[in-house]
Design a protein that fits this description.
By secondary structure, the protein is an alpha+beta fold. It contains 19 helices and 11 strands. A hairpin with a 2-residue loop joins strand 2 and strand 3.
């Protein structure tokens, strides 16, 4: 997943790019897309949501009763064209660790008069295996909106062509903020010292003005929020000269907000530009190994669910293991079998799948590398236990039941007044 020789970027460090690549590979693997495609081909949008770990938090019959048949028809039509795997791929992710989804998101997908379809990422849903909620809300989210970027969740919409200007991108990568923004036709009002803080913000400068006008047609000013405490205000959008100002986030209150999908560079496009890829599902691991053992090449083979040293009898293997427990050396065949079960790369990959809730993929990986008799518990017991506990808590909340409460240890009885501690005689 690394990118030796990748282009330098002032916007995405190698560590951040690696995390995002991990998030896409393990969070949206090919198996998920295949399962979703099968359900969508059968016109089963609910099944597609289940395959993509998306929980639908509303009832269509209630929508008809509360909002009327027109809203019901529009929402139903959109749901039949919802691609939940594509939605998962395009939701904002953390740029550290395993590239998990950001918690607490409210992402507007579509608005139907008084109600809004939104994708939510509550912390407890993410703890239950990166689950996403699909809900109806009375108001639309401001900073995270995909209603004007439907290609990120609606199968009827193709991704628009975003012009790529290598000159502007090169200026951004070099950290030359003023020159990059000027090349994009946006004049900066603030001194250079103010803008240095935004040098690492992934602004899609070649398309910023066009996206602002498309998302907020007719607006004189718009604001976007690249950080919690600051905002960038674009002014003069209807005219030929656009200016930008960095202000405290509070000073931008009340202005039309430009969602992240409009001002930020698409993650996958940026990863591809830098030479990173989200690899396809790796090929099946070999079921036979040739190893050096006792000065010869021997075969270690996966047979009936376990790895066996073909060129050794069971008695020889048992004797060699017994000698190893007394401090003797392991032969090449036995060592190869031991390494299969203690491989840190396997434990890491299983852990990553579990962080993203992909238990089936973790199990398939374990079987491919260790054989059908192996289990996830033997490789990553703690991550699996955390996922199961998070899932149990989440399901209890959805069912309206009290959350799990850790049982404290039984308190020791206080001594009665005047009582003495018992002593154990030697």
């Amino acid at each position: 997943m690394s990118a030796p020789g990748a282009e330098h970027s002032a916007i995405l460090s190698p560590e951040q790019a690696e995390s995002l690549t991990v998030g896409l590979r393990y969070g949206v693997p090919n198996s998920l897309a295949t399962q979703v495609a099968a359900r969508r081909a059968a016109d089963d949008w609910r099944g597609a949501c289940r395959a993509a770990a998306v929980d639908v938090r509303f009832d269509l019959s209630d929508v008809r009763r509360v909002h009327g048949s027109d809203v019901h028809a529009s929402l139903t039509d959109d749901l039949h064209h919802l691609a939940p795997d594509v939605l998962r791929r395009h939701l904002p992710r953390q740029v550290h660790g395993a590239g998990r989804l950001r918690a607490g998101l409210v992402v507007t997908l579509a608005t139907y008069g008084p109600t809004t379809l939104a994708a939510l990422t509550p912390p407890d849903a993410l703890a239950a295996g990166e689950r996403i909620q699909l809900a109806l809300r009375p108001t639309a989210g401001r900073r995270h909106r995909l209603d004007r970027h439907r290609h990120r969740w609606d199968s009827r919409h193709a991704a628009p062509d975003r012009p790529h200007c290598p000159e502007i991108t090169a200026l951004q990568d070099a950290g030359d903020v003023h020159a990059a923004w000027a090349a994009a036709g946006i004049r900066l009002r603030e001194p250079a010292a103010t803008w240095r803080r935004l040098a690492a913000v992934p602004v899609d400068l070649p398309n910023l003005r066009a996206e602002a006008r498309r998302c907020r047609p007719g607006a004189e000013q718009v604001a976007f929020f690249p950080g919690r405490n600051r905002a960038v205000v674009l002014s003069g959008l209807p005219g030929p000269s656009v200016t930008a100002t960095v202000v405290a986030a509070g000073r931008a209150a009340g202005l039309p907000v430009l969602p992240e999908a409009a001002w930020a560079r698409p993650v996958e496009a940026e990863l591809a530009r830098l030479g990173y890829r989200s690899p396809e599902t790796p090929p099946a691991d070999p079921t036979q190994l040739r190893v050096a053992c006792g000065g010869r090449l021997h075969i270690v083979q996966l047979h009936d669910g376990s790895w066996r040293a073909v060129d050794h009898s069971p008695e020889q293997i048992a004797r060699e293991r017994a000698l190893a427990r007394l401090g003797g050396p392991l032969g090449g065949c036995v060592r190869a079998i031991e390494d299969r079960f203690s491989d840190p790369a396997t434990a890491r990959d299983v852990d990553r799948y579990l962080q993203h809730g992909r238990i089936a993929d973790a199990r398939a990986l374990v079987i491919a590398r260790l054989g059908p008799a192996a289990s996830i518990e033997s490789v990553a017991p703690e991550p699996l236990a955390r996922l199961r506990e998070g899932t149990a808590r989440y399901r209890l909340r959805l069912a309206g039941l009290p959350p799990l409460v850790a049982v404290p240890p039984h308190p020791r009885r206080p001594l009665r007044k005047g009582a003495r501690h018992s002593q154990v005689k030697p």
